[in-house]
Write a structure and sequence with these properties.
Elements: E1 2-3, E2 25-31, E3 39-40, H1 41-48, H2 54-62, E4 66-68, E5 71-72, E6 78-79, E7 84-90, E8 107-110, E9 114-119, H3 136-143, H4 148-151, E10 168-174, H5 177-188, E11 193-201, E12 208-212, E13 214-217, E14 225-228, E15 238-246, E16 250-257, H6 264-271, H7 294-306, E17 312-320, E18 327-331, H8 336-359
């Protein structure tokens, strides 16, 4: 068997906070050996894929996530020599035990197959180095403790994507293997609707645009991601943006993810010279645009104090329901700190405009 397995997303942690922004699925590709005897597809894959149960493989097949020679195949399909098999699955389970914690969650939607959570800033999505409690996964392990998918203390149970610790907003969580597999396929196919609201430094050059650039771990700083403009490293990443409001020295923008790489919006915007406001990792936590007046400096310091995190909110999330196919769409209002930050910039620009009018 020729195994061309590769993962479409990164598996290692960014830092002690567990911050990442990858979809949690893998893509496998393999070619059956010339001398392979006929065998059921699910049995064949169970033997050859470590830490993957037959139930998970059958769920992937039922979801249309296993292709043989380019066509969706059932678990009962009998493999033949030189068959080309391609699979999209949620990441395999980890051994680390998750302790359920009774942590309140803001659940905006829930049914038998999934739930949508509005995550507050400051909450890590899943346990990582230095964060083994107080995470979204710990909370889900309590809330969904009666379900088989969560009963075993799986570190990534139900997750198909995540957002950074200090990014607020919407996440979808699967409640069973079927939903998990079908949602993972939607993220892999880039059919999930995701919109973020961001405040970035500087005046964006157009009313809308697209940033395309491979993203990988920085060769100089393991805690940061880096854009490899020549495509020599990293993974293909595309971010679409449009201006919502201009403040001259900063811009309120909507960002739409076509791909979901670690820190994608943050690193793409910084690469273009427009780091997120107060993003300490990518240089947005200092005055990058504006005047030298003490009054302006105080205004920015007040803004930083008001929202002591990068200005990014996962505002909108849409996908096809994994069982019914119904299109679902969810919206999240700006959290209080972000709302007050926008009001502060509104007030500052209105005051500056009034001052100019008075002088004229």
């Amino acid at each position: 068997m020729t195994d061309d397995r590769y993962t479409d997303q990164q598996t290692d942690e960014i830092d002690e906070s567990g911050e990442e922004q990858d979809e949690l699925y893998e893509h496998f590709a393999l070619t059956v050996d010339k001398g392979q005897t006929p065998m059921r597809l699910d049995r064949f894959l169970t033997v050859r894929m470590e830490h993957t149960s037959r139930n998970r493989i059958q769920a992937a097949a039922d979801s249309g996530n296993i292709l043989v020679n380019g066509t969706a195949a059932k678990s009962s399909y009998k493999i033949k020599p030189l068959d080309r098999i391609s699979i999209v699955m949620p990441y395999p389970r980890r051994e680390t035990e998750i302790v359920p914690e009774h942590i309140p969650l803001e659940i905006v939607y829930e049914d038998d197959d999934l739930l949508v959570v509005d995550k507050p800033a400051g909450m890590v999505v899943h346990p990582g180095h230095g964060n083994y409690s107080g995470t979204l996964v710990n909370a889900l392990a309590w809330h969904l403790r009666e379900l088989p998918l969560f009963r075993e203390g799986n570190q990534r149970a139900g997750l198909v994507h995540r957002i950074d610790k200090n990014t607020s907003g919407l996440l979808v969580v699967a409640k069973n293997e079927l939903a998990h597999a079908r949602l993972a396929k939607q993220f892999f196919d880039h059919t999930v609707h995701r919109r973020y609201t961001a405040l970035v430094w500087g005046n964006l050059p157009e009313d809308e645009g697209t940033i395309t650039g491979h993203i990988g771990r920085s060769p100089k700083d393991r805690l940061k991601m880096h854009v490899f403009a020549d495509g020599s490293d990293g993974k293909h990443a595309v971010t679409h943006w449009r201006v919502l409001k201009r403040y001259g020295y900063a811009t309120l923008a909507e960002c739409r993810l076509e791909t979901g790489r670690t820190h994608q919006i943050r690193v793409h915007m910084a690469w273009q010279g427009h780091p997120l406001f107060n993003d300490e990792r990518y240089g947005g936590d200092r005055i990058l645009k504006g005047t030298t007046f003490a009054k302006y400096k105080q205004f920015i310091e007040n803004c930083f104090a008001l929202m002591p995190r990068h200005a990014l909110h996962a505002r909108s999330l849409g996908f096809a329901h994994p069982r019914t196919g119904e299109e679902l769409r969810f919206e999240s209002a700006l959290p209080e700190d972000f709302r007050q930050l926008v009001e502060k910039w509104d007030g500052y620009t209105a005051s500056a405009r009034q001052s100019l009018d008075d002088k004229s």
